[in-house]
From TrEMBL:
This is Stress-response A/B barrel domain-containing protein. Residues 4-100 form the Stress-response A/B barrel domain. InterPro entries: Dabb, Dimeric_a/b-barrel. Gene3D superfamilies: 3.30.70.100. It comes from the Eukaryota. It comes from Aspergillus campestris (strain IBT 28561). Pfam families: Dabb.
Length: 104
């Protein structure tokens, strides 16, 4: 089974709020554990370059999980992700998430 690649895009109007969300992703990268061990195989996050194609989404995130089970854990049980949602939830205008197994 191929790894699960997850793309999340945020629309966060306020720059200070974007900075707080980006900082919380740094915390998440260090603290997300399952059974006491890191389980996100890779993570990348940054401010999106201005471009009409991004339709106002201004933070881009890519996370990789070894399995669908690990991604489900991230969504439902991960304390670090819950902490991130507490920060991002109230300040986001919109969020878009998609995930897939790469065919390459």
């Amino acid at each position: 089974m191929a790894p699960i690649e997850r793309i999340t895009l945020f629309k966060i109007p306020n720059e200070a709020d974007r900075d707080r969300v980006l900082e919380q992703y740094k915390v998440l990268a260090k603290t997300a554990v399952k059974d006491g061990k890191p389980y996100i195989t890779s993570a990348a996050v940054g401010v999106s370059f201005p471009d009409v194609r991004n339709k106002g989404y201004n933070i881009s995130v890519k996370t990789t999980f070894a399995s669908m089970e690990d991604m489900k854990f991230y969504d439902e049980e991960c304390e670090a992700h819950k902490d991130l949602k507490k920060i991002a939830g109230p300040v986001k205008e919109d969020v878009l998430t998609t995930f897939y197994e790469s065919i390459l």
